[in-house]
């Protein structure tokens, strides 16, 4: 959530920025509920004070008829006002949660994905002396991907990943773990990008794949209609991305300053309904209902939050470069960054078999927006308590990066070269 004090002091700015992000929340109505809420709260606190004074003044003696009558009147009035306050508070929270996070100054203003900005393109597109094929035309005939049998037992948008392709996924996992656990690599990227942070390694973590409604809703990531699967008989949702059970990890906790930054690299199977994408990317393994994902999650102090965002982007670029893939770095516009985000970056890798760039990575910076409802806080050495800042970013969404490797490293005989950096994790194998 956004800080209500910030909204009070910057109402017109919040209206403008919310509209730029595509959210039509009524800020005037929100502030009206806020004013009523504060007025009722003051009245409730005054009655509670009167009730306490009346109790203290009795000195343990049997109350007089006048005191009994006064106590009854205070109780009745307090019950009525508390009921009104609870009702107003609920309306206020609903409206407050509709207000999106404010974008950083460097986020371009735009009303569609078409207004995202390509900040750079890196790498050379591979050249072939044959017509490159899309990944499914290579992997499915070779029985590396089996969507037909997966559809038979689970429905559309599922796949069996088999043989050498499955081994390649595990090689990618080891590559990421080694990279994010290497202080020298982190220090190098911090220095190259002039960042105010430390080379503290990422801790590997296998998080739950399900979470309850209350923390999920507090994370501002629960999108029930379009994205998320709900278990019918339980208060549990299947996570739509690994960061959903990572960002909620310290729900309702106060953490000591010397713990920061807290960096995790989480591996989890994720699930998405993909509602609204009928007919889009139905071939291959780009858009599945179930996919495995390595996700970076960082909890930081407010003063280092944006630099952690930049570090995550640098790590994404470093790992894609090590795979030898051509990519674009996209700075997403206000419309496209998402409700809780203050900034959002995509990396789109080149897929020669489809003659297009496809999104493979995202990096999201939430400032303290996510932490406010999650109540994830930092206790400074001075004793002061404040909200943490959160970041998440894709290390690899496995199906997409496997598809990118297949298309970029395909050979005329439909063998797939193993990227050099992964061969040490494949027992030295050069092809799949």
How would you describe this protein?
The protein is α+β, with helices and mostly antiparallel strands. The chain folds into two domains: 4-98, Helix Hairpins (Orthogonal Bundle); 113-425, 2-Layer Sandwich (BirA Bifunctional Protein, domain 2), CATH 3.30.930. The protein is built from twelve helices and 15 strands. The chain has helices spanning 4-9, 11-20, 27-57, 65-98, 135-139, 147-154, 163-180, 183-192, 213-218, 305-322, 369-374, 398-408, and strands at residues 117-122, 145-146, 160-161, 203-205, 210-211, 237-238, 254-256, 262-271, 290-300, 327-331, 343-351, 356-365, 377-379, 385-387, 389-397. The strands form four sheets. An eight-stranded mixed beta sheet has the order 1-10-11-12-15-9-8-4. A hairpin with a 4-residue loop joins β11 (343-351) and β12. α3 (27-57) runs antiparallel to α4 (65-98). The longest helix is centred in the first third of the chain and has 34 residues, at 65-98. The radius of gyration is 26 Å and the shape is elongated. The mean pLDDT is 94.
């Amino acid at each position: 959530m956004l800080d209500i004090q910030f909204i009070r002091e910057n109402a017109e700015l919040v209206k403008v920025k919310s509209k730029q992000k595509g959210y039509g929340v009524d800020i005037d109505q929100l502030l009206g509920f806020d004013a009523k809420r504060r007025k009722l709260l003051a009245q409730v606190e005054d009655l509670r004070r009167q009730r306490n004074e009346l109790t203290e003044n009795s000195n343990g003696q049997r109350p007089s008829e006048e005191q009994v009558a006064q106590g009854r009147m205070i109780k009745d009035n307090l019950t009525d006002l508390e009921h009104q306050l609870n009702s107003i508070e609920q309306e206020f929270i609903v409206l407050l949660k509709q207000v999106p996070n404010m974008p950083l100054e460097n986020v371009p203003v735009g009303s569609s994905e078409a207004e995202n900005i390509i900040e750079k393109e890196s790498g050379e597109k591979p050249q072939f002396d044959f017509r490159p094929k899309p990944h499914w035309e290579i992997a499915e005939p070779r029985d590396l991907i089996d969507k037909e049998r997966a559809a038979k037992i689970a429905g559309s948008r599922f796949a069996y990943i088999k043989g050498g392709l499955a081994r390649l996924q595990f090689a990618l996992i080891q590559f990421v773990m080694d990279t994010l656990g290497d202080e020298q690599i982190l220090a190098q990227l911090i220095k190259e990008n002039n960042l105010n942070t430390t080379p503290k390694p990422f801790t590997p973590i296998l998080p739950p794949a399900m979470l309850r409604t209350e923390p999920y809703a507090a994370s501002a990531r629960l999108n029930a209609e379009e994205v998320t699967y709900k278990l019918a008989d339980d208060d549990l949702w299947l996570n739509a991305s690994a960061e959903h059970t990572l960002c909620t990890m310290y729900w309702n906790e106060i953490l000591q300053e010397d713990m920061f930054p807290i960096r995790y690299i989480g591996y989890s199977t994720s699930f998405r309904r993909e509602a609204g994408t009928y007919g889009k990317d139905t071939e291959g393994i780009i858009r599945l209902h179930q996919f495995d994902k390595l996700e970076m999650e960082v909890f930081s102090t407010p003063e280092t939050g944006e630099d952690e965002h930049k570090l995550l982007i640098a790590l994404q670029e470093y790992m894609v470069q090590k795979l030898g893939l051509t990519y674009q770095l996209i700075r997403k516009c206000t419309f496209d960054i998402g409700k809780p985000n203050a900034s959002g970056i995509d990396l789109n890798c080149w897929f020669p078999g489809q003659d297009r760039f496809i999104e493979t990575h995202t990096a999201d910076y939430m400032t303290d927006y996510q932490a406010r409802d999650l109540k994830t806080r930092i206790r400074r050495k001075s004793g002061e308590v404040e909200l943490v800042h959160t970041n998440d970013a894709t290390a690899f969404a496995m199906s997409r990066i496997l598809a990118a490797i297949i298309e970029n490293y395909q050979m005329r005989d439909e063998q797939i070269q193993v990227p050099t950096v992964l061969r040490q994790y494949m027992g030295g194998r050069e092809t799949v």
